[in-house]
Amino acid sequence: MESFTTRDVARLLGLSETQVRAQARAGFLSPERGPRNRYRFSFQDLVLLRTARELAQARVPPHCIRSALLGLARQIPSGRSLSEIRITPNGRGVLVHEGGKAWNPESGQLQFQFGMADFTLAAAPLARTLQRWDYEPDQPQGAWEWFDRAVELESTDPVAASRAYARALGQDPALSDAHVNLGRLLQLAGRIEEAIHHYRQSIQAASNDPTAAFNLGTALEEIGRWNDALAAYRQAIEVDGCFADAHFNLARLCEQLGRRAEAIRHLRAYKKLVE
């Protein structure tokens, strides 16, 4: 796989070259040295740097980002790809999601994800369950009203948000946006198979929206279904050829699977879109 100069990385990620060099000195990257002792970054380095940028945009403190990524670098075996790992903000720190489990990269401790685990969202009994709920006159009535309520609740009460999305789907089972948002909450809670179900439902309901296909790809990666994930990312790009993140994930996954020519093609497409 081709390597990247400091200038390449800065342009791809919207950072200054000074910021890239500072991250290289932080200790969680493994850049090689090229001509004139200049940094040459691998694709794995690029993934970590992009993660660091996204965590910073989520207002995770810089010292927490550095500590978490250092911990991750120590705990991930050398040569192992990050494709099967997802890193998300968690308050003022981060969590690493892998195979339906979440752990703190600083301490190495598993994190138990409560709340969603007790909320069953199987498709078949969903409508019957909703019919048994008592009517409350001050609650939303239509599918989109329940959807709007769910969006408002996401940041403060994901479990209540999930229930509201379920109510929206009870009103309109083909509401694509509710399927994709509920799938995302389920995925964050480690309920990958249920998330996949809702992403697929969203794709069937709205084939012109690439978000569900992209999210489906990330969920399939989490459980090691690499070829299915490739197909999902490709579907996202078929819908929207300018979906930069889908090109990036395709490049990352193709690189892991040894499909170098395809990886380079998608990485170049990503570079063109973000420049």
Molecular structure report:
The chain is α+β, with helices and mostly antiparallel strands and 275 residues long. The protein has two domains: 6-111, Multidrug-efflux Transporter Regulator, Chain: A, Domain 2; 116-274, Alpha Horseshoe (Serine Threonine Protein Phosphatase 5, Tetratricopeptide repeat), CATH 1.25.40.10. 59% of the residues lie in helices and 7% in strands. The protein has helices at residues 6-13, 17-25, 43-57, 62-75, 123-132, 143-153, 158-171, 176-188, 192-205, 210-222, 226-239, 244-256, 260-274, and strands spanning 32-33, 39-40, 86-90, 93-98, 101-103, 110-111. The strands form two sheets. The chain has a four-stranded antiparallel sheet, covered by helices on one side. The chain starts with 5 loop residues before the first helix and ends with a helix. The model is unreliable at 112-135 (pLDDT under 50).
Spell out the key features of this protein.
275 residues, alpha+beta, Serine Threonine Protein Phosphatase 5, Tetratricopeptide repeat, two-stranded antiparallel ribbon, 13 helices, 59% helix, globular
Structural class: alpha+beta
CATH C-level class of the largest domain: Mainly Alpha
Average pLDDT level: 79
What's the end-to-end separation, in Å? Answer: 21 Å
CATH topology of the largest domain: Serine Threonine Protein Phosphatase 5, Tetratricopeptide repeat
